[in-house]
Design a protein that fits this description.
With about 450 residues, this protein is α/β, with parallel strands linked by helices. The protein contains 16 helices and 15 strands. Strands 9-8-10-11-7-12-15 form a seven-stranded mixed sheet, with helices on both faces. The protein has a six-stranded antiparallel sheet with strand order 3-2-1-6-5-4. A two-stranded antiparallel sheet has the order 13-14. Helix 1 crosses helix 2 and helix 6 packs parallel to helix 7 (about 225-235).
Protein backbone atom coordinates (compact mmCIF):
# COMPACT_ATOMS: atom_id res chain seq x y z
CA UNK A 1 0.00 0.00 0.00
CA UNK A 2 1.62 3.22 -1.21
CA UNK A 3 1.75 6.20 1.12
CA UNK A 4 -0.36 9.13 -0.11
CA UNK A 5 0.78 12.74 0.05
CA UNK A 6 -1.47 15.74 -0.66
CA UNK A 7 1.05 17.61 -2.81
CA UNK A 8 -1.39 20.50 -3.43
CA UNK A 9 -1.73 21.35 0.27
CA UNK A 10 1.52 19.95 1.71
CA UNK A 11 4.72 21.97 1.07
CA UNK A 12 7.62 20.07 -0.50
CA UNK A 13 9.74 20.83 2.59
CA UNK A 14 7.27 18.92 4.78
CA UNK A 15 7.00 16.08 2.25
CA UNK A 16 10.77 15.53 2.25
CA UNK A 17 10.91 15.69 6.06
CA UNK A 18 8.05 13.22 6.39
CA UNK A 19 9.66 10.74 3.96
CA UNK A 20 13.00 10.78 5.81
CA UNK A 21 11.49 10.51 9.30
CA UNK A 22 8.99 7.80 8.34
CA UNK A 23 11.69 5.73 6.60
CA UNK A 24 13.96 6.01 9.66
CA UNK A 25 11.13 4.96 12.00
CA UNK A 26 10.41 1.93 9.82
CA UNK A 27 14.02 0.82 10.11
CA UNK A 28 14.91 1.47 6.45
CA UNK A 29 18.56 1.58 5.42
CA UNK A 30 18.06 3.48 2.14
CA UNK A 31 15.53 5.69 0.37
CA UNK A 32 15.47 5.57 -3.45
CA UNK A 33 14.00 8.36 -5.60
CA UNK A 34 13.66 6.73 -9.04
CA UNK A 35 12.73 9.00 -11.98
CA UNK A 36 10.34 7.57 -14.58
CA UNK A 37 8.87 9.14 -17.70
CA UNK A 38 5.52 10.06 -16.15
CA UNK A 39 6.30 10.17 -12.42
CA UNK A 40 8.94 9.57 -9.75
CA UNK A 41 8.79 6.38 -7.69
CA UNK A 42 10.02 6.36 -4.10
CA UNK A 43 11.21 3.05 -2.65
CA UNK A 44 12.69 2.19 0.75
CA UNK A 45 15.00 -0.69 1.62
CA UNK A 46 13.97 -2.60 4.75
CA UNK A 47 15.89 -5.69 5.88
CA UNK A 48 17.75 -5.73 2.58
CA UNK A 49 14.66 -5.69 0.31
CA UNK A 50 13.37 -2.68 -1.66
CA UNK A 51 9.63 -1.99 -1.33
CA UNK A 52 7.50 0.63 -3.08
CA UNK A 53 6.73 3.58 -0.79
CA UNK A 54 5.15 6.44 -2.74
CA UNK A 55 4.71 8.03 -6.17
CA UNK A 56 5.49 11.67 -6.95
CA UNK A 57 3.90 13.46 -9.96
CA UNK A 58 6.26 15.03 -12.48
CA UNK A 59 5.21 18.59 -11.66
CA UNK A 60 6.48 18.08 -8.06
CA UNK A 61 9.55 15.99 -8.94
CA UNK A 62 11.95 18.86 -9.71
CA UNK A 63 11.08 20.77 -6.53
CA UNK A 64 11.51 17.64 -4.41
CA UNK A 65 14.95 16.90 -5.88
CA UNK A 66 16.00 20.53 -5.45
CA UNK A 67 14.96 20.47 -1.77
CA UNK A 68 17.02 17.33 -1.10
CA UNK A 69 20.04 18.81 -2.89
CA UNK A 70 19.81 22.04 -0.89
CA UNK A 71 19.69 20.41 2.56
CA UNK A 72 22.46 17.93 1.64
CA UNK A 73 24.81 20.69 0.46
CA UNK A 74 24.80 19.88 -3.26
CA UNK A 75 24.98 22.28 -6.19
CA UNK A 76 21.38 22.74 -7.36
CA UNK A 77 22.48 24.22 -10.70
CA UNK A 78 24.44 21.08 -11.64
CA UNK A 79 22.31 18.24 -13.00
CA UNK A 80 24.73 16.63 -15.47
CA UNK A 81 27.31 15.23 -13.01
CA UNK A 82 27.01 12.87 -10.03
CA UNK A 83 27.12 14.56 -6.61
CA UNK A 84 27.42 13.46 -3.00
CA UNK A 85 26.14 15.17 0.11
CA UNK A 86 25.16 14.64 3.73
CA UNK A 87 22.31 15.61 6.04
CA UNK A 88 22.47 15.85 9.84
CA UNK A 89 19.29 16.99 11.52
CA UNK A 90 16.73 16.25 14.24
CA UNK A 91 13.18 16.11 12.91
CA UNK A 92 10.12 15.17 14.97
CA UNK A 93 12.48 14.10 17.80
CA UNK A 94 14.25 11.69 15.41
CA UNK A 95 18.01 12.21 15.03
CA UNK A 96 18.99 11.71 11.39
CA UNK A 97 22.45 11.15 9.93
CA UNK A 98 22.13 10.66 6.18
CA UNK A 99 24.43 10.24 3.19
CA UNK A 100 23.00 11.43 -0.12
CA UNK A 101 24.02 10.45 -3.65
CA UNK A 102 22.68 12.05 -6.83
CA UNK A 103 23.12 10.37 -10.22
CA UNK A 104 22.00 11.76 -13.60
CA UNK A 105 19.96 9.23 -15.62
CA UNK A 106 18.16 9.37 -18.95
CA UNK A 107 14.86 10.13 -17.16
CA UNK A 108 16.34 12.70 -14.77
CA UNK A 109 18.30 12.73 -11.52
CA UNK A 110 18.10 9.65 -9.28
CA UNK A 111 18.74 10.23 -5.59
CA UNK A 112 19.58 7.62 -2.98
CA UNK A 113 19.65 8.51 0.71
CA UNK A 114 21.56 6.13 3.03
CA UNK A 115 20.25 6.20 6.60
CA UNK A 116 23.15 5.61 9.00
CA UNK A 117 22.35 3.72 12.17
CA UNK A 118 25.11 3.62 14.80
CA UNK A 119 23.14 1.77 17.46
CA UNK A 120 24.78 -1.60 16.67
CA UNK A 121 28.31 -0.13 16.59
CA UNK A 122 27.78 1.68 19.89
CA UNK A 123 26.42 -1.44 21.61
CA UNK A 124 29.74 -3.29 21.13
CA UNK A 125 31.12 -6.43 19.46
CA UNK A 126 29.23 -8.70 21.84
CA UNK A 127 25.92 -7.56 20.34
CA UNK A 128 26.80 -8.20 16.67
CA UNK A 129 25.57 -11.80 16.54
CA UNK A 130 28.93 -13.55 16.87
CA UNK A 131 28.75 -17.09 18.18
CA UNK A 132 30.59 -17.69 21.45
CA UNK A 133 33.47 -19.34 19.59
CA UNK A 134 33.73 -16.60 16.94
CA UNK A 135 33.56 -13.89 19.61
CA UNK A 136 36.47 -15.52 21.43
CA UNK A 137 38.50 -15.58 18.21
CA UNK A 138 37.78 -11.90 17.45
CA UNK A 139 38.96 -10.89 20.92
CA UNK A 140 42.10 -12.99 20.45
CA UNK A 141 42.62 -11.41 17.03
CA UNK A 142 42.51 -7.81 18.25
CA UNK A 143 44.76 -8.52 21.24
CA UNK A 144 47.88 -8.98 19.05
CA UNK A 145 50.59 -6.28 19.32
CA UNK A 146 50.78 -5.82 15.54
CA UNK A 147 49.35 -7.27 12.35
CA UNK A 148 46.58 -6.68 9.83
CA UNK A 149 42.96 -7.65 10.55
CA UNK A 150 40.46 -7.58 7.68
CA UNK A 151 36.66 -7.45 7.72
CA UNK A 152 35.29 -8.67 4.39
CA UNK A 153 31.98 -8.89 2.60
CA UNK A 154 29.89 -7.31 -0.13
CA UNK A 155 28.53 -3.77 0.00
CA UNK A 156 25.89 -3.36 2.68
CA UNK A 157 26.83 -6.40 4.78
CA UNK A 158 27.69 -4.46 7.94
CA UNK A 159 31.47 -4.29 7.56
CA UNK A 160 31.63 -0.71 8.87
CA UNK A 161 29.49 -1.66 11.88
CA UNK A 162 31.91 -4.46 12.77
CA UNK A 163 34.99 -2.27 12.24
CA UNK A 164 33.61 0.56 14.39
CA UNK A 165 32.68 -1.92 17.12
CA UNK A 166 36.26 -3.24 17.15
CA UNK A 167 37.58 0.34 17.30
CA UNK A 168 35.33 1.01 20.30
CA UNK A 169 36.87 -2.04 22.01
CA UNK A 170 40.42 -0.84 21.23
CA UNK A 171 39.72 2.80 22.16
CA UNK A 172 41.58 3.15 25.46
CA UNK A 173 43.41 6.00 27.13
CA UNK A 174 46.86 4.55 26.44
CA UNK A 175 46.18 3.87 22.74
CA UNK A 176 46.61 6.26 19.79
CA UNK A 177 44.10 5.34 17.10
CA UNK A 178 44.14 7.06 13.70
CA UNK A 179 41.66 6.31 10.90
CA UNK A 180 41.56 7.28 7.24
CA UNK A 181 38.07 7.01 5.75
CA UNK A 182 35.93 7.96 2.78
CA UNK A 183 33.52 9.07 4.11
CA UNK A 184 33.77 9.23 7.90
CA UNK A 185 30.55 7.48 8.85
CA UNK A 186 30.72 7.74 12.63
CA UNK A 187 32.39 10.33 14.82
CA UNK A 188 34.08 8.53 17.72
CA UNK A 189 35.41 10.51 20.67
CA UNK A 190 39.07 9.83 21.41
CA UNK A 191 39.92 8.67 17.88
CA UNK A 192 41.72 10.79 15.25
CA UNK A 193 39.75 10.47 12.03
CA UNK A 194 40.98 11.67 8.62
CA UNK A 195 38.62 12.29 5.70
CA UNK A 196 40.18 11.62 2.29
CA UNK A 197 39.82 14.24 -0.43
CA UNK A 198 40.83 13.08 -3.92
CA UNK A 199 40.43 16.58 -5.39
CA UNK A 200 43.42 17.87 -3.41
CA UNK A 201 45.41 14.64 -3.62
CA UNK A 202 44.61 13.34 -0.13
CA UNK A 203 43.93 9.69 -0.96
CA UNK A 204 44.29 6.61 1.25
CA UNK A 205 47.94 6.02 0.33
CA UNK A 206 48.98 9.65 0.93
CA UNK A 207 47.17 9.81 4.28
CA UNK A 208 48.69 6.48 5.36
CA UNK A 209 52.24 7.70 4.80
CA UNK A 210 51.61 10.69 7.08
CA UNK A 211 49.76 8.60 9.69
CA UNK A 212 52.84 6.39 10.13
CA UNK A 213 54.68 9.50 11.41
CA UNK A 214 51.93 10.20 13.97
CA UNK A 215 53.06 7.49 16.45
CA UNK A 216 49.89 5.36 16.07
CA UNK A 217 49.12 2.13 17.90
CA UNK A 218 46.10 1.28 15.76
CA UNK A 219 45.43 2.37 12.16
CA UNK A 220 42.04 1.92 10.57
CA UNK A 221 41.77 2.15 6.78
CA UNK A 222 38.19 2.56 5.57
CA UNK A 223 38.71 0.24 2.60
CA UNK A 224 41.62 -1.37 0.73
CA UNK A 225 40.81 -0.43 -2.87
CA UNK A 226 44.08 -0.53 -4.75
CA UNK A 227 47.56 -2.03 -4.83
CA UNK A 228 49.34 0.97 -3.29
CA UNK A 229 46.99 1.10 -0.28
CA UNK A 230 47.27 -2.67 0.21
CA UNK A 231 51.06 -2.59 0.18
CA UNK A 232 51.34 0.34 2.60
CA UNK A 233 48.75 -1.24 4.93
CA UNK A 234 50.66 -4.53 5.06
CA UNK A 235 54.01 -2.80 5.60
CA UNK A 236 52.50 -0.67 8.38
CA UNK A 237 51.26 -3.77 10.16
CA UNK A 238 54.71 -5.38 10.36
CA UNK A 239 56.34 -2.27 11.82
CA UNK A 240 54.53 -2.52 15.14
CA UNK A 241 50.98 -1.36 14.35
CA UNK A 242 47.58 -3.02 14.39
CA UNK A 243 45.99 -2.27 11.01
CA UNK A 244 42.23 -2.71 10.66
CA UNK A 245 40.52 -2.47 7.29
CA UNK A 246 37.76 -3.77 5.01
CA UNK A 247 37.93 -5.38 1.59
CA UNK A 248 35.27 -6.59 -0.84
CA UNK A 249 35.64 -10.39 -0.89
CA UNK A 250 33.33 -13.30 -0.06
CA UNK A 251 35.36 -15.42 2.34
CA UNK A 252 38.76 -15.96 3.95
CA UNK A 253 40.34 -17.78 1.02
CA UNK A 254 39.19 -15.14 -1.50
CA UNK A 255 40.65 -12.44 0.75
CA UNK A 256 44.12 -13.99 0.71
CA UNK A 257 43.94 -14.41 -3.07
CA UNK A 258 42.76 -10.81 -3.59
CA UNK A 259 45.68 -9.39 -1.62
CA UNK A 260 48.11 -11.53 -3.59
CA UNK A 261 46.48 -10.33 -6.83
CA UNK A 262 47.15 -6.77 -5.61
CA UNK A 263 50.87 -7.63 -5.80
CA UNK A 264 51.38 -7.68 -2.04
CA UNK A 265 54.63 -9.59 -1.48
CA UNK A 266 53.99 -13.09 -0.17
CA UNK A 267 56.62 -12.91 2.55
CA UNK A 268 55.08 -9.65 3.86
CA UNK A 269 51.50 -10.92 3.73
CA UNK A 270 52.38 -14.16 5.50
CA UNK A 271 53.99 -12.31 8.41
CA UNK A 272 51.42 -9.49 8.57
CA UNK A 273 48.01 -11.19 8.24
CA UNK A 274 46.55 -12.06 11.65
CA UNK A 275 42.85 -12.60 11.07
CA UNK A 276 39.92 -12.34 8.66
CA UNK A 277 36.27 -11.76 9.56
CA UNK A 278 33.93 -12.50 6.63
CA UNK A 279 30.25 -11.69 6.98
CA UNK A 280 26.87 -11.58 5.27
CA UNK A 281 23.51 -10.30 6.50
CA UNK A 282 20.46 -12.55 6.70
CA UNK A 283 16.92 -11.43 7.45
CA UNK A 284 16.02 -12.17 11.06
CA UNK A 285 12.91 -14.15 11.93
CA UNK A 286 10.22 -12.22 13.78
CA UNK A 287 10.15 -13.72 17.32
CA UNK A 288 6.43 -13.00 17.69
CA UNK A 289 5.11 -15.10 14.82
CA UNK A 290 7.79 -17.64 13.82
CA UNK A 291 6.56 -21.22 13.83
CA UNK A 292 8.25 -24.61 13.95
CA UNK A 293 8.04 -27.12 11.14
CA UNK A 294 9.65 -30.53 10.50
CA UNK A 295 12.82 -30.59 8.41
CA UNK A 296 12.64 -32.32 5.05
CA UNK A 297 15.14 -34.94 3.93
CA UNK A 298 17.39 -32.48 2.10
CA UNK A 299 17.60 -30.22 5.15
CA UNK A 300 18.32 -33.18 7.45
CA UNK A 301 21.15 -34.32 5.17
CA UNK A 302 22.65 -30.83 5.06
CA UNK A 303 22.48 -30.34 8.83
CA UNK A 304 24.05 -33.78 9.36
CA UNK A 305 26.88 -33.06 6.90
CA UNK A 306 27.62 -29.52 8.04
CA UNK A 307 26.86 -29.50 11.77
CA UNK A 308 27.40 -33.19 12.48
CA UNK A 309 24.07 -33.87 14.20
CA UNK A 310 20.39 -34.40 13.46
CA UNK A 311 17.95 -31.49 13.37
CA UNK A 312 14.31 -32.57 13.38
CA UNK A 313 12.61 -29.15 13.48
CA UNK A 314 13.41 -25.62 12.35
CA UNK A 315 11.52 -22.33 12.35
CA UNK A 316 9.80 -20.81 9.33
CA UNK A 317 8.09 -17.50 8.53
CA UNK A 318 4.46 -16.75 9.29
CA UNK A 319 3.85 -12.99 9.28
CA UNK A 320 2.02 -10.77 11.77
CA UNK A 321 0.96 -7.13 12.23
CA UNK A 322 4.30 -6.26 13.79
CA UNK A 323 6.56 -7.60 11.01
CA UNK A 324 4.34 -8.03 7.94
CA UNK A 325 6.30 -10.75 6.14
CA UNK A 326 7.69 -12.85 9.00
CA UNK A 327 11.07 -11.08 9.15
CA UNK A 328 12.12 -8.24 11.41
CA UNK A 329 15.67 -6.86 11.29
CA UNK A 330 18.80 -8.63 10.10
CA UNK A 331 21.47 -10.77 11.69
CA UNK A 332 25.08 -11.28 10.61
CA UNK A 333 26.48 -14.64 9.54
CA UNK A 334 30.23 -14.83 10.18
CA UNK A 335 33.33 -16.73 9.16
CA UNK A 336 36.22 -15.89 11.50
CA UNK A 337 39.69 -17.18 10.61
CA UNK A 338 42.71 -16.84 12.87
CA UNK A 339 45.79 -17.15 10.67
CA UNK A 340 47.99 -19.89 12.13
CA UNK A 341 51.64 -20.60 11.33
CA UNK A 342 50.73 -23.35 8.87
CA UNK A 343 48.66 -20.95 6.76
CA UNK A 344 51.39 -18.29 6.98
CA UNK A 345 53.93 -20.82 5.67
CA UNK A 346 51.57 -21.88 2.86
CA UNK A 347 51.16 -18.24 1.73
CA UNK A 348 54.89 -17.55 1.70
CA UNK A 349 55.67 -20.83 -0.09
CA UNK A 350 53.16 -20.17 -2.91
CA UNK A 351 51.13 -23.27 -2.11
CA UNK A 352 48.51 -24.23 -4.78
CA UNK A 353 44.98 -22.94 -4.23
CA UNK A 354 43.43 -26.34 -3.50
CA UNK A 355 46.00 -27.12 -0.78
CA UNK A 356 45.68 -23.62 0.68
CA UNK A 357 41.90 -24.13 0.79
CA UNK A 358 42.33 -27.38 2.72
CA UNK A 359 44.60 -25.64 5.22
CA UNK A 360 42.23 -22.68 5.68
CA UNK A 361 39.10 -24.78 6.16
CA UNK A 362 40.73 -27.47 8.25
CA UNK A 363 41.94 -24.78 10.67
CA UNK A 364 39.97 -23.58 13.68
CA UNK A 365 37.31 -21.86 11.57
CA UNK A 366 33.51 -21.86 11.57
CA UNK A 367 32.48 -21.37 7.94
CA UNK A 368 29.67 -19.12 6.76
CA UNK A 369 27.56 -22.19 6.01
CA UNK A 370 28.14 -23.67 9.46
CA UNK A 371 27.39 -20.40 11.25
CA UNK A 372 24.31 -19.83 9.08
CA UNK A 373 22.86 -23.27 9.74
CA UNK A 374 23.62 -22.89 13.46
CA UNK A 375 21.54 -19.70 13.46
CA UNK A 376 18.76 -21.53 11.56
CA UNK A 377 18.73 -24.24 14.24
CA UNK A 378 18.49 -21.55 16.95
CA UNK A 379 15.50 -19.97 15.20
CA UNK A 380 17.24 -16.70 14.33
CA UNK A 381 16.78 -16.97 10.55
CA UNK A 382 15.43 -19.39 7.93
CA UNK A 383 16.96 -22.14 5.86
CA UNK A 384 16.04 -20.28 2.65
CA UNK A 385 17.88 -17.13 3.75
CA UNK A 386 21.08 -19.08 4.37
CA UNK A 387 20.85 -20.86 1.02
CA UNK A 388 20.47 -17.57 -0.82
CA UNK A 389 23.46 -16.06 0.99
CA UNK A 390 25.93 -18.93 0.85
CA UNK A 391 25.28 -19.78 -2.83
CA UNK A 392 25.80 -23.54 -2.87
CA UNK A 393 26.11 -23.55 -6.66
CA UNK A 394 28.98 -21.04 -6.66
CA UNK A 395 31.77 -22.08 -9.05
CA UNK A 396 34.21 -21.77 -6.18
CA UNK A 397 32.45 -24.48 -4.16
CA UNK A 398 31.10 -27.98 -4.71
CA UNK A 399 27.32 -28.16 -4.50
CA UNK A 400 27.15 -31.94 -4.79
CA UNK A 401 23.84 -33.33 -5.99
CA UNK A 402 21.91 -30.10 -5.33
CA UNK A 403 22.35 -26.70 -6.94
CA UNK A 404 20.86 -23.58 -5.34
CA UNK A 405 17.59 -23.57 -7.28
CA UNK A 406 16.94 -27.24 -6.55
CA UNK A 407 17.76 -26.73 -2.88
CA UNK A 408 15.30 -23.84 -2.55
CA UNK A 409 12.63 -25.74 -4.51
CA UNK A 410 12.92 -28.72 -2.21
CA UNK A 411 12.78 -26.46 0.83
CA UNK A 412 9.65 -24.75 -0.51
CA UNK A 413 7.98 -28.14 -0.91
CA UNK A 414 8.14 -28.66 2.83
CA UNK A 415 6.08 -25.49 3.39
CA UNK A 416 3.15 -26.76 1.36
CA UNK A 417 3.44 -30.38 2.44
CA UNK A 418 1.59 -31.14 5.66
CA UNK A 419 2.98 -34.65 5.81
CA UNK A 420 6.77 -34.63 5.88
CA UNK A 421 7.02 -38.41 6.04
CA UNK A 422 5.06 -38.68 2.80
CA UNK A 423 7.46 -36.21 1.17
CA UNK A 424 10.48 -38.17 2.36
CA UNK A 425 9.12 -41.38 0.84
CA UNK A 426 8.82 -39.66 -2.54
CA UNK A 427 12.40 -38.35 -2.36
CA UNK A 428 14.42 -39.87 -5.19
CA UNK A 429 17.39 -37.52 -5.38
CA UNK A 430 20.70 -39.04 -4.32
CA UNK A 431 22.07 -37.96 -0.91
CA UNK A 432 24.40 -35.01 -0.60
CA UNK A 433 27.95 -35.77 -1.58
CA UNK A 434 29.72 -32.42 -1.38
CA UNK A 435 32.98 -32.05 0.50
CA UNK A 436 32.50 -30.12 3.74
CA UNK A 437 36.06 -28.80 3.54
CA UNK A 438 34.96 -26.74 0.51
CA UNK A 439 32.84 -24.62 2.83
Amino acid sequence: MLKKFDFEKMPVVEVVNEIMVDAAKRGASDIHFDPHKDYMKIRIRIDGALIDYAAVPNEIKKNLITRIKIISGMNITESRLPQDGAIKATLQNVSLDLRVSCLPTIEGEKIVIRILDYSMSLSGIEHLGFSEENYRKVLQMISVPNGIILVTGATGTGKSTTVYSILQKLNKEDTNIVTVEDPIEMDIEGINQVQTNAEIGLDFATALRSILRQDPNVIMIGEIRDTETAKIAVRASITGHIVLSTIHTNNSLNTIERLLDMDVERYLLSSALEGIVSQKLARKLCPNCRSKRPTNQYEKDLFRKVLGHEVAEIYSVEGCDECGNGYKGRIAIHEVLLINQEIKDAISQNMPKDKLRQLVYSADVTTLLQDGLDKVEKGLTTFEEVLKLIELDDDDKLAGSFDLKTAIDYTDISHSSSNTEEYEEEETVSPLNFNLDEY
